């Protein structure tokens, strides 16, 4: 099975734990996925957060792991989520990113900014790993609050038809969603979600539900960047260069 397929197909926690160990070397001491799962669960318990749902994917013959854990905090409509990445082959550091899940549509969103615990070096004991996980999750709580606040704030921004077209071009140009999903996005934005910035974001994250979970945080980071640039253009008292750019793009649509 290819890495791309593994990145899309969910696996169970037991399958992640069963990935074979990678031998240590003098300079490379890989943190196994099972240790990542253990220390993050313990850290969440220490700070009083409960896990209510877990999803996992594996890639690169089990060497890469990405997981999404939904937590019991947030609001009745939107729960906190964390994305966890790890590798056994030095391809990516053990890290955690903040996210949310909108319950009514099951859309996931991430900030895309990872807090890295530590790269796979020698001398990393189990106790030190546990301490680093606890420290990281303590730092993650304000990031979760901030990302939830940002996500909810999108409801405050209406979106004209021209602005929606421009933003759609931007996210396609940034490879957030492929051009082949153009009609799916338009159908969702026009008929399922409200025609504002919140609805635009939800339509995009709805389309992304079928994406490779390993690449989802980066796609969300790019999506958030496009949206933040648009918000910044609205908040600038004088017409900005970005605002001029948007107006020119609108004229050509």
Explain this structure to me?
Mean pLDDT is 86; it is low at 1-7, 237-243 and 249-253. Strand 1 (51-59) and strand 2 (64-74) form a beta hairpin. The protein is built from 9 helices and 5 strands; from the N terminus they run H-H-H-E-E-E-E-E-H-H-H-H-H-H. By secondary structure, it is α+β, with helices and mostly antiparallel strands. Helix 3 (33-46) crosses helix 4, helix 6 (182-191) packs across helix 7 and helix 7 (197-207) packs antiparallel against helix 8. A 5-stranded antiparallel β-sheet has the order 1-2-3-4-5.
Keywords:
disordered C terminus; disordered N terminus; 253 residues; globular; single chain; 20% strand; alpha+beta; 5-stranded antiparallel beta sheet
Chart the SSEs and their pairings.
Elements: H1 3-8, H2 13-17, H3 33-46, E1 51-59, E2 64-74, E3 78-87, E4 94-102, E5 107-118, H4 126-153, H5 161-173, H6 182-191, H7 197-207, H8 216-235, H9 241-251
Antiparallel strand pairs: 1-2, 2-3, 3-4, 4-5
Helix pairs in contact: 3-4, 6-7, 7-8
